[in-house]
């Protein structure tokens, strides 16, 4: 069953969350411990992020440095397989344009198909840290809609070079895309952003999961705009609890989201991360309750570095 079908068939509030693959060289054990903390809330699925390679400088030992490409968090496909096998929960790996060629994506799709992992979240991804703007990889894509085309062609039995394949899997990939209640930071305006979002839905995306937001009115307005534009798929709200005082300035800068005045003022008064974490749990719980009270079927939590907070919120809600 794909994510959209899971959401549509719910008769009670649903719960899902997102995890990071371990850093290169680290064990998967801590990741499993974090997942274990959230199992009692019957997660519908688990998202696994994908990270691009970045350019780093390494010493050659003779006083010189060499620029090399290095990925700090490899293993998205393997982590997805481990989660789905261990917990019997649908795993949803992120498939991104950023830093990947269409051939690397094809290899990932083949591996996922062999593993029986057929739910995807398709994203463009972020620009490289050393770049001032997003630049696609050689033989890669500039937009998520192009990546969607590749997945659709794969579903129809074609490789990127146009050759026909034998049946790789009896089940085609189903996928969702990202939505931005406060618009993508590169979009000129919200209407243009939603126009391109509908373009991806028309190509076959079966659900939308939103970027984090801290003002529910932004979500409700976004859903209303989407419905008026003819987007009728499930729109899953993504919530992230604040866990540190520094997020007062980091979150708006990195994720291009606004913090409501009440939240910003309360966070500014916090003189420790412990108090900020308590505030984050309280605010996110309030958001989740209102969303559910107004008919939202399922909530997705960005639990990265916030598993304990998400657990406390889930205890309040589910």
Task: Write the topology of this structure.
Elements: H1 3-8, E1 14-19, H2 29-36, E2 46-48, E3 54-59, E4 65-70, H3 76-87, E5 91-96, H4 102-115, E6 119-123, H5 144-155, E7 174-179, H6 190-203, E8 208-212, H7 216-228, E9 235-239, H8 247-255, H9 261-269, H10 273-293, E10 298-302, H11 307-317
Parallel strand pairs: 1-2, 1-10, 2-5, 5-6, 6-7, 7-8, 8-9, 9-10
Antiparallel strand pairs: 3-4
Describe this structure in words.
- The protein has 318 residues and is α/β, with parallel strands linked by helices.
- It is built from eleven helices and ten strands.
- The strands form two sheets. The protein has an eight-stranded parallel β-barrel, surrounded by four helices. The protein has a two-stranded antiparallel sheet with strand order 3-4.
- Helix 5 links the parallel strand 6 (119-123) and strand 7 (174-179).
């Amino acid at each position: 069953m794909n994510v959209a079908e899971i959401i549509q068939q719910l008769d009670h509030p649903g719960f899902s969350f997102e995890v990071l693959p371990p850093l290169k060289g680290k064990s998967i054990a801590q990741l499993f411990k974090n997942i274990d903390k959230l199992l009692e809330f019957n997660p519908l699925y688990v998202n696994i992020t994908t990270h691009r390679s970045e350019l780093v400088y390494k010493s050659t030992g003779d006083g010189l440095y060499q620029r090399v490409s290095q990925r700090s968090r490899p293993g998205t496909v393997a982590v997805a397989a481990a989660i789905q096998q261990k917990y019997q929960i649908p795993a949803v790996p992120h498939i991104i344009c950023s830093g990947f060629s269409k051939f690397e994506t094809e290899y990932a799709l083949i591996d996922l198909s062999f593993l029986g992992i057929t739910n995807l979240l398709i994203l463009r991804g972020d620009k490289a840290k050393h770049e001032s703007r997003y630049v696609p990889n050689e033989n890669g894509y500039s937009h998520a809609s192009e990546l969607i085309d590749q997945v659709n062609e794969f579903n129809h039995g074609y490789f990127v070079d146009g050759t026909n394949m034998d049946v790789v899997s009896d089940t085609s990939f189903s996928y969702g895309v990202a939505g931005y209640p406060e618009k993508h930071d590169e979009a000129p305006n919200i209407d243009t952003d939603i126009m391109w979002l509908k373009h991806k839905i028309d190509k076959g995306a079966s659900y939308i999961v939103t970027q984090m937001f801290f003002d529910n009115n932004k979500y409700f307005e976004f859903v209303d705009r989407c419905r008026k534009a003819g987007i009728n798929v499930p729109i899953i709200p993504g919530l992230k609890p604040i866990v540190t005082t520094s997020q007062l300035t980091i979150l708006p800068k990195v994720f291009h989201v606004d913090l409501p005045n009440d939240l910003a003022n309360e966070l500014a008064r916090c003189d420790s991360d412990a108090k900020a974490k308590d505030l984050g749990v309280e605010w996110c719980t309030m958001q989740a309750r209102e969303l559910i009270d107004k008919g939202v079927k399922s909530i997705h939590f960005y639990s990265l570095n916030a598993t304990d907070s998400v657990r406390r919120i889930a205890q309040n809600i589910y």
